[in-house]
């Protein structure tokens, strides 16, 4: 087992707590090696939110195969496990898909018609990761931002890194948790903490803007599933994520 | 964080052929043992990575309680044989809603299936290896998504079926972990033969199930580069969505 010291950047925080996708990338990176450089499937359970500042990542290699390695990763702060992760990593293939479900990527309005999501919202709440993740929402799915939730529980838009660099497979772990919660469209404006997040990476993304779609199927008894798909500029599905998260009814 | 080790004996009840143990049953077995270490009664979210195929016989299960909170607890449980990790899991436990709890939002519907008596009983053909899954579970396949049983293939990436215990066991949340991985792979219907080993499986449980037949649908989105995703929804006989599962599994690309 190896331990890596990490520094959790306050610039990625949401209301003072580091973003879940950022934590996932931070935890996964030390587990990768040259022979197995790409996360292929990552499962994370979130135990308690760390604060910005120093933390540790413990990595234990479970299996080293020729194609695939599996590792266990734990992000700790103040001696407590904060995020527990299992991942299998490999070299992601690029090439033609054998079969892809009909439908394809979400249809989005042109980029110039989609406004960038600011890191400081109208209520003054700071969502720091939107300084790092450039999100352009399809406003037809974001009427809640104008005070008019539509009850669709579906949100979509364009996404890339703020610095304009091409997204790497590790960036997709961040992006898979970067859409605003679909609960906003149901008129629930509260925090939606992630309990579990699994990300399947299906290819190295082609350069350019990514298309991202997130939706929920079931909200019941304080829990919802959120599914996120990320498509690259060549129309290939590059990430499939699902999370189980909590919601609260407004008082 | 407290940890303990339990010795298990893995029987061949759920084995395929010479001793390939069923992935869903392994997940149920591991989760049942792990839940003995928390006050929380039900699995809410269970993630498993299958590092190597366990064999019938003795195994060690290491269980570590990571956090015991007021509404949920999180555990890590790892099954090893001969000191080698075989299946590694993370389990978040809590209390599932009782049946009938109204959804705030639901944007999916149960699969449409012919009546169980008009479906095909999933069985192994004469001369084929035995398969514990079809001995322990009664799986009734929708003929519309089971052309492969007639030596053909439909081309779609979806399989639908009714499932219940073949031994009279009542439906409970733990059993749903097995059912989440019980359908034949969608690759058969796509004309891709061969074993489809699971690399990762995550199961969300959404409600305590009511008794009766379970309706299951399994589908893939992308089959590419030797890997496919398979998602499985399980609905209980009262129409509640009780399981959402997804796995990443391997397949052998047909030579062209």
In short:
The complex is a heterodimer of chains A (251) and B (256). Chain A is mainly beta and 251 residues long.
Please outline the helices and strands.
The complex is a heterodimer of chains A (251) and B (256).
Chain A: E1 2-8, E2 13-14, E3 17-18, H1 20-28, E4 38-46, E5 53-64, E6 69-77, E7 80-90, E8 99-100, E9 133-137, E10 154-161, H2 169-175, E11 194-201, E12 210-215, E13 218-220, E14 223-231, E15 237-246
Helix pairs in contact in A: 1-2
Chain B: E1 2-10, E2 15-16, E3 20-21, H1 23-35, E4 42-50, E5 57-68, E6 73-81, E7 84-94, E8 105-106, E9 120-121, H2 132-136, E10 137-141, E11 158-165, H3 173-179, H4 186-189, E12 198-205, E13 214-219, E14 222-224, E15 227-235, E16 241-250
Antiparallel strand pairs in B: 1-5, 2-3, 4-7, 4-12, 5-6, 6-7, 9-10, 10-11, 11-13, 12-16, 13-15, 14-15, 15-16
Helix pairs in contact in B: 1-3
What does this structure look like?
- The complex is a heterodimer of chains A (251) and B (256).
- With 251 residues, chain A is mainly beta.
- Chain A is 6% helix and 41% strand.
- Chain A is built from 2 helices and 15 strands.
- In chain A, the strands form 2 sheets. In chain A, strands 1, 4, 5, 6, 7, 9, 10, 11, 12, 13, 14 and 15 form a 12-stranded antiparallel beta sheet that branches.
- The longest helix of chain A is centred in the first third of the chain and has 9 residues, at 20-28.
- Chain A is globular, with a radius of gyration of 18 Å.
- Chain A starts with a strand and ends in a 5-residue tail after the last strand.
- The model of chain A has no long low-confidence stretch (mean pLDDT 95).
- Chain B is mainly beta.
- Chain B contains 4 helices and 16 strands.
- In chain B, strands 1, 4, 5, 6, 7, 9, 10, 11, 12, 13, 14, 15 and 16 form a 13-stranded antiparallel beta sheet that branches. Chain B has a two-stranded antiparallel sheet with strand order 2-3.
- In chain B, strand 15 (227-235) and strand 16 (241-250) form a beta hairpin.
- Chain B is globular, with a radius of gyration of 18 Å.
- The termini of chain B are far apart.
- Classes of the chains: A mainly beta (251), B mainly beta (256).
- At the A-B interface, strand 4, strand 7, strand 8, strand 11 and strand 13 of A face strand 4, strand 6, strand 7, strand 8 and strand 12 of B.
